[in-house]
Amino acid sequence: MSKENVPQNHFLPRSWEVPLREKMKEGAIVKGRIGEIRDFGATLEIIPGIEGFIRVPEVSWTESIDMRNHFKINQEVQAKIIWLDRENRRMYLSIKQLTEDPWNKITEKYPLKSRHTGVVKKIAPFGVFTELEYDICGMILLSDLSWTKQYNHPSEFTQIGQRIEVMILNLDVINRKLSLGHKQVNSFKALI
């Protein structure tokens, strides 16, 4: 085969073997562009020829992310290398590990009976998912919306995006569950 018939990139050193790639190791922070997006994860091209994979659980500490809605092709993203296999040219990346797990200090920041303001993120027939901060969401059950009024559906009380006052009713650190109440913010005695 003559040199003219060989693809140009054939003469480039294999990107996984270039000495400069020694900077790429587990724990290193890398930046790249989102390539292929699948339901279970997305590829991140760090440089031509080197890409890693971001699995859904490595995007957020608590929330299950819809990858197709969360990322766009060619979006620039920063991630941490959490597993690297140079021999097989495979790498797993994490976005969530760029920040501290917010649940590490949850009991200090959100003690029982403390009051906070959250944003309604999702409404289900049984209650309202409310975000207190990024990666910290809790549930207000339908029965914990009001002392005096009974609602058939939470949408009769609130809408997605609305700010709402809440009280911490229960905290399950192991299972990462936060139970919230809205009616508890107002004393029942004050309403009688």
Summed up, what is this model?
This protein has 192 residues and is mostly beta strands. The protein contains three helices and ten strands. The chain is 6% helix and 40% strand.
Q: Return the string of H and E elements.
A: EEEHEEHEEEEEH
DSSP helix fraction: under 10%
Secondary-structure-based class equals mainly beta
Low-confidence stretches: 1-13
Looking at the structure, the CATH topology of the largest domain is OB fold (Dihydrolipoamide Acetyltransferase, E2P)
Q: Tell me how many strands there are.
A: 10
What would you say this structure looks like, in words?
The strands form two sheets. The chain has a five-stranded mixed barrel. It is mainly β. It folds into two domains: 3-98, Beta Barrel (OB fold (Dihydrolipoamide Acetyltransferase, E2P)), CATH 2.40.50.140; 102-186, OB fold (Dihydrolipoamide Acetyltransferase, E2P). A hairpin with a 4-residue loop joins strand 4 and strand 5 (90-94). It has helices spanning 67-70, 106-109, 188-191, and strands at residues 29-38, 41-47, 50-55, 76-85, 90-94, 115-124, 127-133, 136-141, 163-172, 177-181.
Fold blueprint:
Layout (H helix, E strand, L loop, with lengths): L28 E10 L2 E7 L2 E6 L11 H4 L5 E10 L4 E5 L11 H4 L5 E10 L2 E7 L2 E6 L21 E10 L4 E5 L6 H4 L1
Keywords, separated by commas or semicolons:
mainly beta; OB fold (Dihydrolipoamide Acetyltransferase, E2P); 2 domains; 5-stranded mixed barrel; elongated
